[in-house]
Design a protein that fits this description.
Cyt_P450, Cytochrome P450, two-stranded antiparallel sheet, 6 strands, 33% helix, Cytochrome p450, 156 residues, alpha+beta, oxidoreductase activity, acting on paired donors, with incorporation or reduction of molecular oxygen, two-stranded antiparallel ribbon, 5 helices
Length: 156
């Protein structure tokens, strides 16, 4: 998420400039990074214990379901203009770390690590920029792994 967050900010220079001008925005920026590019794309698999209707679709007893966290984080009934990256988005009830009994136990540590890493990176390297065009950034294509990039070439 540190790499994805850095990439996302570099791809949205207006948002990055706002964060550079006001470092106190880092918490909101990280929450938006988590929502915008959910690293863990899938929730735990579920099997219906009885017939149930979800979103107009019947799921029969015994059928399996994968819930897409990334899709939930773009729900228009929850997020205004969900495909737009906005470090000022509030509230931001994303599901990047799951929810309820399936909430990530390390979410607070992960948030702190991302906040510290990105804040330090943009403070120490104020001229940080991509060293390759956006379309040359290599994304993880193995769907058994969390979403991410394989490398992030930068210069400063």
């Amino acid at each position: 998420m540190i790499t994805l967050g850095t990439l996302t900010l570099l791809q949205h220079p207006d948002q990055l400039n706002q964060l550079r001008q006001d470092p106190s925005l880092i918490k909101g920026a990280v929450e938006e990074i988590l929502r915008y590019l959910t690293g863990s794309q899938f929730a735990t698999r579920r099997v219906a214990i009885e017939d149930v209707e979800v979103g107009g679709q019947t799921i029969k007893k015994g059928e399996g379901v994968w819930a897409l966290n990334a899709s939930a984080n773009e729900d228009e009934s929850v997020f205004k203009d969900p495909t737009r990256f906005d470090i000022h988005r509030a509230p931001n009830p994303h599901l990047a770390f799951g929810d309820g009994i399936h909430q990530c136990v390390a979410e607070h540590l992960a948030r702190a690590e991302i906040q510290i890493a990105i804040a330090t990176l943009i403070r120490r390297l104020p001229n940080l920029q991509l060293a390759v065009p956006d379309d040359k950034v290599n994304y993880v294509t193995d769907h058994t792994r969390d979403f991410g990039v394989t490398t992030l070439p930068v210069k400063w």
